[in-house]
Amino acid sequence: MSGALAVHVAKECPSMIDALCVIDVVEGSALESLSSMQCFLSSRPKQFSTPQKAIEYIVRSGQVRNIESARVSVIGQIQPMITT
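The structure assignment produced for this chain is given below.
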């Protein structure tokens, strides 16, 4: 779905959408960065022992510089491990 379409739908149906984040990337730039994105993703740890360890990693790696910002944004990127 293109960003413009997503924004249009959000405007027309506000009761159906709690939040919308649109990141617009030029197609050529996006395609050029695919190979480096794979490398970036494969270098990240697969799991962390605690949410705090994930936050510390994100700040230490320079992905987010502000610890308070990391505390907000990282939680939405991690899931608890399911043990059987």
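Interim note for the steering committee: Residues 27-43 form the longest helix (17 residues). Residues 1-43 form one domain.
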